[in-house]
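User: Can you fold this complex?
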Amino acid sequence: MFDTLLGVSFTLLALWAVLGTLYRIVTWVRTPSPLPIPLTPAPRTRLGVVGRLCLEIFLFRALARANTVTWVASILFHYGLLFILIMHMRFFFAYLPGWLIPFVVWSGWAVAAAVVGLCILLLRRIIVDRVRYISSPSDYLHLVLLLCIVLSGYALKRHWPVNTSTVGEFLRGALSFQWQPLPDGAVLVIHLVFVLLLFFVFPISKLLHGVGIVFTPTLNQRENVSVSVATKKGEHSS
Amino acid sequence: MNTPDVQGVADQAQVVGRYKVIPLIQEGAGESFNTAVAESDVQESLGLPGTLVDDWHDKAIARLGQLLKERRGLRVFMDTCTKCGACTDKCHYFLGTHDPNNMPVARQDLIRSVYRRYFTWAGRWFPWLVGARKLDKNLLQQWYTYFHQCSECRRCTVFCPKGIDTSEVTMAGREVLASVGLGQQYSQEIITKVKSVGNNLGMKPRALADVLENLEEDILDETGIPVRLPLDEEGADMLVVTPSADFFAEPHVDGLIGYAKVLHQAGIHWTFSSEASEAANFGLFTGQHDHMREIALRIRHAAMGLGVNRIVIGECGHAWRVAYSFLDSLVGPMQFLSKEHPRAEHICEVTHQLLQQGIIQLDPTRNEGVIVTYHDSCNVARGSGMGNVANGQLTIPRELLKASVPGFVEMSKDTVGQTTFCCGGGGGLLTDDLMDIRIKGSLPRAQALQAVVNSDQVTHLVAICAICKTQLSSVLPHHNLVDVRVTSLHHLVGDALVLT
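Assistant: Here's the predicted assembly.
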């Protein structure tokens, strides 16, 4: 009964997260952008824009220019989390595929990176007066929630190991509307509930920033397109 | 002017590189610096309420909701800020005032908190959790104060990992304020003038013609060469639209003479227009797109009336952003322009091209003893391009300067180029009642300048923006920088030009 409740919650909240994100994207895209406001010097080609966005999304270029401590902490946390997420793909296979083995073996280091990164970000939010001034309770809680998820997951791996194939069946079941039981274990339930909470807040909070950056006109617009057209026609050739 | 504050800033300015020391926040430090609210006749002539309307709360929320539906940038920026703090020490007004509301993110939060309260589910039900606020009189006053302590220079955007553009938020804030009766006197009055007379100064065509005639005589006396400054000449090939300060203010007017000399030497048939005797477009500052469009349309109309096939914009930062980035969107493509010059050009790219083609010659020895440093104007560096080459807006002015003077020195890297510090007077703040804020906001620029004055004996600070020139000329003395001359780029070009 409890398993089914968790399973159905998982299904519904995963849907909520995906549909909520899509809804937000649709809101952004449907809002007109009457004047071009790229931050110049800006790329003149679409490929250039993709490159600019990739630099921001994968390397946090602007943050690197702005603040080294925040940049290091953010890189540690985001890449740690990405590594852990990839590791979780093991639950979508009945047998562990070879390419996932390094992710499983090294996930302890990824946890360490994510925890260190999150702690620095949390400390910075508390200690630096400027950042404290702009922080709301939710800003702290997002970091605490992520810490809870990562730490409870690590506890599962190290101290209260669960039957991964049963967890896999539960997750695959929840995503295919064929709900399966979850292995026993309070820590597993705690870990899962934290994740469900994350699913819930994701589409209605700042956690959408990773998606939003793609739709940011200052970064995704090209510099004066009519000029590019003029250049192609060949005048001012130098 | 001689308040203790001013003296304090001047003292600090002695310590070079101090802008790199991030100050501790000081709540309310900037709240007393306010700009006059627009008078009712000014507001009403723009079709806006003359005083704060009774139902200002509902009207403001409705207008904000409308802007959120009309401007994607604003909408995305409201949602994507993670409060990472990267921008918090990047604004010159924060560095100058220490007021936390001048941190770009806090400035945005003045609106974001209201956005969350009225337009998001989380903010409506859990305002305390997500920092959502009701719009009350107190907050409205903060909007007015701090959206007029932003020069919309977009330096913070460079450092924002989400690319959030505070100027878009400031513009939206000012737009909402004006719509409920709280426009800014300085900007709104200028918009009424440019609409009724054709320029920000309210200079009538006859007066303009007299000014140009006198300038022609001055040039003839000085050089012995009849350089013309034509007005409303039908059949000219090129329309030059320049900020009206160029017609009389110092050091702007020397730049104007420079344009005339260059165009004379190149044998170009050009003209000014009395209808479009202003390049500036304060509709950008106030965020009112309809006004921005109307002001931009004058340029199109004047160009068609005169039958020109080129439009050239003089040394003006935000005018160039409007011309380079927005003109097509605002007034449609201008098919009447020649195929070789299908868009508005900057006077610097015109001069640069003439120089490259060997049509004009510059002789730097004519500016003997001049050592310049170049102040990148925000709207040029971060809001536009120049000359169909990547980074042209940064390289072309420098190439012109290096060809015109014997000495060129760069200020510290994080204060020029894309990360240039604002002069402190842009975005509609160039008004006497904001003098305190202008002085404080110019602190980083003044300190970077002081460093090169000390190290390289810089004599001239060059800018290609009317606002930068006026602002820097009036604030630098407050930073004890009295020996540096603020100069128009085309003044030095004009002096170096081999004129025949």
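Chain A touches chain B through 63 residues (CB under 8 Å). Residues 227-238 of chain A have pLDDT under 50 and may be disordered.
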